[in-house]
Amino acid sequence: MSSAQYRSLKGMQDILPPDIYLWQKVEQTAQRIFSVYGFQEIRLPVMESTSVFTRSIGENTDIVEKEMYTFTDKGARSVSLRPEGTASVVRSYVENSLYNLPAPQKFYYSGPMFRYERPQSGRFRQFYQIGVEAFGDPGAKLDAEVIAMLALLLSFLGLEGVSVQINSIGCEVCRPGYREALITFFSAKREGLCPDCLRRYDKNPLRILDCKASGCIELRQGAPRITDHICGDCRTHFEKLQSLLSLLKVSFSLNPEMVRGLDYYTRTTFEVTSQGLGAQNAVAAGGRYDRLVREFGGPETPAVGFALGIERVVELLKKAAPHAAPVPLVFIASIGDKAGSESLGIAQQLRQRGLWVETGDPSGSLKSQMRRADRLGARYVFIIGDEELLSGRLKWKGLDGSGQGELLFSEIEAFLTALVEK
Ligand SMILES: [Zn+2]
Ligand SMILES: [Zn+2]
To answer: What's the gap in Å between 204 CA and the centre of ligand 2?
Structure first.
């Protein structure tokens, strides 16, 4: 037993093989899909000035109020580990004047985020997101493209039972009116609200709509719907988005209660959920944030993006199918010192060709080397001893039952290349 001092922190986990292969699959697939839509990778610090997050995410959100890892560094500055990616991307966009480049500018990022949440199944204090942010186009076309790209990614990953929900939460013009309508609606029901919602009642009543407390869920029955209050421009945008999603054959449903827990969204919000994940069932979520760049001191720049939770996608992939970790193509068993050196030379030659080769311990028995080849799941075993060195032929055996035979040393590469191409 290791002492508590040397254990990972609560809510933080190591990601080890074989799970890591699923992580890599998610990351590599995302990279491939995002690049065909013209998104470029950016890498940003995991720590920022606290104000980067309080300003963008909003003072009255769960994230800022309860969940940030905020501390004072040795220079007496308040810094925070990033709880999400968008704020940092926007900070970088403005700081590096990326708005001077031709629009739209499309970026993606991948990495750890940190929130001090109560750890529970599927939730971690260090969790990983892959996210995209596209700047400079106010039209619904960009929203549709981003959502279609997300749907394509999930389908390339082989996830079934996912559904896209969309909503419009209005703009600076129409949201104040909706806010008033909500305040009026909840004014007679205030006592029934949970402490969080009660506190947010006049500042951010929209948050009551996505509160998880059962009392709040009950109280909001019959509440005015945002989609009945949005202005003409927001309505046109929302309808255009729906027709484009239909055109792109992305199936979606409308969810007028989905307001998302962040202050910066305008117009489109969306979530992708999966049956397989229970209550915490959002796999990815995002929306449009047309005011955020300006709030960071940049020029008026509309933007839209999403973030996808890698842990959740990996969990779904695990449920869908047991993942086969990659295995070595060949294990070379050798008997004796000379054969051992020969096997190392052959391994090097094959590795230079990009083939995964493992070698056994030439001082061990053939039996123990075969056992190790088996445990590694190697597809083929080569056997080299004194006799093989003399004859210039090695013995091969397919561990998947694909036969056995002999092979000239000079034929090894051709033999394996044929296998790999098969
Ligand atoms: Zn509007
Ligand atoms: Zn509540």
So the answer is: 12
